[in-house]
Amino acid sequence: MYHVLIAEDEQWIRQSVAEMINRMGDDFVLAGEARNGQEAWTLIEELWPAILVTDVMMPQMDGLALIERVVEQQIPMTFVILSGYDNFEYARRAIRYGVTEYLLKPVQMEQLHEALKRSAAQLGSNGELNRLLVGFRNLLDRFDPADSGLFYRKALQLIDQVLAMPRLDGPAKLNLLRLFEHRLLSLLRDLQAPASALDIGRSTDDPTIRRHLQTLLETWVLHKSESAALDNHRTAMRKACEYIGQHYKKDISLTQMAAATHMSVSHFSLRFKEYTGKTLVQYIQETRIHKAKELLRDTSLKAYEIAEETGFSTHSYFVRVFKNTTGLSPGEYKKRINP
């Protein structure tokens, strides 16, 4: 399976090529679409596709400049160039970058399929490099905090596999590891985690490189796990607030809510206050008062009926809480809202 990236500024051509690739079956998978060279470069750094299908003339960065950057960075990819009659000779200049596949617009599906198959065959040893890149990316993308130990072992095994590969020459191996580092540093920046780069191009000492990548992995796993835990807490608190919004009439206890979110009472109290800025009791009362205001505005219910409808134990308690919250009694509030 080969992942293909399309870079084309003309929407109808880009969509047409994408549709063709989607119809080709399992051999070729559409990795992404870009509207210009700069956007394509960002996706290349993110997705590491095996094959780039690119227009020559594009805004921000043209197809040749894009290919040149890929080649300079030694990213294992092959290229298919899309070209119009008016710039076909210009496209042929890409031969110095090893480009052998040129397609004239409009592109036919059979021509594209054959070009992609030749490009896949051309990958050769680069195909193995690309599979390692994609494997590393997929490992990071599918990280599960619950299996962090397994993830960590698999990532180190993959790094060790690259370091031990006898078929890779020095520059190819170092560049592959540099791409691993680039991916990890990018992910750490997203998490605002501290990290520094190693000049892997100069450092040929395998143990030093391994320790560096191991440190980056450890840092990312720790911060990612912490971030996932925070996300889980936010989700739990959001669901707690939704539950209160639907069941505010009931007697909702702190113990009950803590058990529902699989937290201790103290932990739930802390997280709930962080999320809402209020204690559970304050939040429930605020929800009930908000509903009471609606009923005072929109119905002819008496105050004691509203107290019962909104979950207050007694009419007097409702009046006291309402006045403490709004500065008005329920009757005064109703008169001012509906004079």
TrEMBL record:
Coiled coil: none annotated. The keyword DNA-binding applies. SUPFAM superfamilies: CheY-like, Homeodomain-like. The modification 4-aspartylphosphate is found at residue 55. It comes from the Bacteria. The keyword Membrane does not apply. Residues 238-336 form the HTH araC/xylS-type domain. Keywords: DNA-binding, Phosphoprotein, Transcription, Transcription regulation. This is Response regulator. Residues 3-120 form the Response regulatory domain. Gene3D superfamilies: 3.40.50.2300, Homeodomain-like (1.10.10.60).
